[in-house]
């Protein structure tokens, strides 16, 4: 019960605009520097280069939420373009992850589409890939609609998205998105029992179902989990069904379970680290605190060690 209360507190805080605004002034405090790779493109690229040297590949995510003006969305788009250019020029092995609400989705979907196309054109220039992060349930269908349009109407094959296993619709979405590179996650937002599983066992079971479905369809699959039981099950499933390791990768968050990340890379699996950066870190950080009680102790340890 206490853990559930704690989770709700952190999730509520993650959506608080006042706290989010204040956090930009605080800087990367309260342990956030352990899980956020600096506040500039240059600092993020340095971290990615260090991870590459350890045998890990990456995806960069310029943090940002609560965009309410076209000017902010254009600025975020330009920042993502510059990030792709910096990755291309530095030669690091790294993709880009984006949130469409940061690019103006809540302002005007067509405006957001224009911004997405600008980012994808830049990624195409550098032979890179862009992952559209999935946000809360209210943005799920519009995200998939835009992905479909980007791929089928505009012909971008260098873009994929994320499917969240706690949503009832996840299994059907997996079938509809056959052939598209997907990151599969359990889910990190607080959703209604009318649209999402609430129990860990149900979420875990559905997670394995969608992983297996996507792998068996021959589609590229990114398994984003810190759960060693899930990871072992995926390894066994892939071996049993003779699924080539080139068809999937494991993904984990920057700053979490680093020993396991290195171990998977040494075993010959592609291990991608999700590397967030920027000064708009508060919402991301609060959701990480909500996911696992252990993360709170981890953050406090980082804060008091400074």
Automatic annotation (TrEMBL):
<feature type="binding site">
    <location>
        <position position="287"/>
    </location>
    <ligand>
        <name>substrate</name>
    </ligand>
</feature>
<feature type="binding site">
    <location>
        <position position="164"/>
    </location>
    <ligand>
        <name>FAD</name>
    </ligand>
</feature>
<keyword id="KW-0285">Flavoprotein</keyword>
<dbReference type="InterPro" id="IPR015659">
    <property type="entry name" value="Proline_oxidase"/>
</dbReference>
<feature type="binding site">
    <location>
        <begin position="225"/>
        <end position="226"/>
    </location>
    <ligand>
        <name>FAD</name>
    </ligand>
</feature>
<keyword id="KW-0560">Oxidoreductase</keyword>
<keyword id="KW-0547">Nucleotide-binding</keyword>
<dbReference type="InterPro" id="IPR002872">
    <property type="entry name" value="Proline_DH_dom"/>
</dbReference>
<feature type="binding site">
    <location>
        <begin position="186"/>
        <end position="188"/>
    </location>
    <ligand>
        <name>FAD</name>
    </ligand>
</feature>
<feature type="binding site">
    <location>
        <position position="288"/>
    </location>
    <ligand>
        <name>substrate</name>
    </ligand>
</feature>
<feature type="binding site">
    <location>
        <position position="134"/>
    </location>
    <ligand>
        <name>FAD</name>
    </ligand>
</feature>
<feature type="domain" description="Proline dehydrogenase">
    <location>
        <begin position="45"/>
        <end position="297"/>
    </location>
</feature>
<dbReference type="GO" id="GO:0010133">
    <property type="term" value="P:L-proline catabolic process to L-glutamate"/>
</dbReference>
<dbReference type="GO" id="GO:0004657">
    <property type="term" value="F:proline dehydrogenase activity"/>
</dbReference>
<protein>
    <recommendedName>
        <fullName>proline dehydrogenase</fullName>
        <ecNumber>1.5.5.2</ecNumber>
    </recommendedName>
</protein>
<dbReference type="InterPro" id="IPR008219">
    <property type="entry name" value="PRODH_bac_arc"/>
</dbReference>
<comment type="pathway">
    <text>Amino-acid degradation; L-proline degradation into L-glutamate; L-glutamate from L-proline: step 1/2.</text>
</comment>
<dbReference type="InterPro" id="IPR029041">
    <property type="entry name" value="FAD-linked_oxidoreductase-like"/>
</dbReference>
<feature type="binding site">
    <location>
        <position position="200"/>
    </location>
    <ligand>
        <name>FAD</name>
    </ligand>
</feature>
<dbReference type="Pfam" id="PF01619">
    <property type="entry name" value="Pro_dh"/>
</dbReference>
<keyword id="KW-0274">FAD</keyword>
<dbReference type="GO" id="GO:0000166">
    <property type="term" value="F:nucleotide binding"/>
</dbReference>
<feature type="binding site">
    <location>
        <position position="99"/>
    </location>
    <ligand>
        <name>substrate</name>
    </ligand>
</feature>
<keyword id="KW-0642">Proline metabolism</keyword>
């Amino acid at each position: 019960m206490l853990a559930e209360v704690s989770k709700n507190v952190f999730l509520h805080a993650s959506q608080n605009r006042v706290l989010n605004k204040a956090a930009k002034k605080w800087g990367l405090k309260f342990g956030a520097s352990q899980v956020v790779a600096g506040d500039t493109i240059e600092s993020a690229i340095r971290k990615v280069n260090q991870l590459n040297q350890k045998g890990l590949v990456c995806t960069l995510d310029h943090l940002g939420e609560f965009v309410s003006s076209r000017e902010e969305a254009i600025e975020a788009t330009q920042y993502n373009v510059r990030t792709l250019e910096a990755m291309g020029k530095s030669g690091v092995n790294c993709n880009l992850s984006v949130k469409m609400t940061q690019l103006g989705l809540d302002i005007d979907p067509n405006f957001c589409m224009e911004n997405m196309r600008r980012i994808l054109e830049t990624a195409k220039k550098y032979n890179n890939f862009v992952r559209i992060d999935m946000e809360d349930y209210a943005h799920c269908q519009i995200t998939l609609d835009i992905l479909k349009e980007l791929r089928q109407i505009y012909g971008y094959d260098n873009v994929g998205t994320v499917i969240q296993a706690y949503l009832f619709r996840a299994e059907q979405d997996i079938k509809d998105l056959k052939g598209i590179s997907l990151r599969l996650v359990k889910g990190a937002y607080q959703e209604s029992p009318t649209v999402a599983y609430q129990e860990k066992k149900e979420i875990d079971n559905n997670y394995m179902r969608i992983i297996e479905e996507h792998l068996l369809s021959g589609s590229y699959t990114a398994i984003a989990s810190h759960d060693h039981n899930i990871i072992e099950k995926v390894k066994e499933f892939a071996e049993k069904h003779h699924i080539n390791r080139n068809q999937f990768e494991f993904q984990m968050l920057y700053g979490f379970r680093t020993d396991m990340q290195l171990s998977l890379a040494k075993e010959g699996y592609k291990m991608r680290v999700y590397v967030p950066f920027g000064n708009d870190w508060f919402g991301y950080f609060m959701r990480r605190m909500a996911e696992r009680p252990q993360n709170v102790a981890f953050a406090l340890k980082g804060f008091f060690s400074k």
